[in-house]
Amino acid sequence: MQRRIARTLALGGTAVLLAAGLASGATRATTFTLSARLTAGQEFPKQVVKVPGARGAFSGMLTKHGSGAKLTFKLTFSHLSAPAFAAHIHLGKPGVAGNVIVPLCAPCKSGAHGTKTVSGAIARAIEAGKTYVNVHTVKNPAGEIRGQVKATA
Hints:
Number of domains: 1
Oligomer: single chain
């Protein structure tokens, strides 16, 4: 009888430890490094004013936790046709224009940085490579430079 009780207690303790381990794993944060090389040639539709020397870089971290995520970023650019009035992360594959899902800055200066809270759906789109960064100017209001966001674990 005592062996049965000891065995039941041991199995119960193991189950509690297993459940606690699974629960803590469910809340563990997952972090991705983000990057994008922005060029005029990736812009879609093509710019109104051609700016072959315009370029930029987007870098950041995406930390998924629970049902949302935290995005920290830095955006640099140079040789634009005019000052950048806005920059965003858009939903879209290469060669496709998409909706804004994360505003980054407005107006923007090279070196812009910040932290944004995003939904789980947006985090999954970023992680899956389905987003791009776009920098907008008065001369190219639809976008002057663009780069697809890459996420690496």
